[in-house]
Amino acid sequence: DIQMTQSPSSLSASVGQRVTITCRASQDISIYLAWFQQKPGKAPKSLIYAADSLQDGVPSKFSGSGSGTDFTLTINNLQPEDLATYYCQQYNTYPWTFGPGTRVEFK
Amino acid sequence: QVQLVESGGDLVKPGGSLRLSCAASGFTFSEHYMSWMRQAPGKGLEWVSYISLGGDTIFYADSVKGRFTTSRDNAKNSLSLEMNSLRVEDTAVYYCARGLSWGQGTLVTVSS
Question: Does the pLDDT value for residue A107 go beyond 90?
Answer without folding.
Answer: no
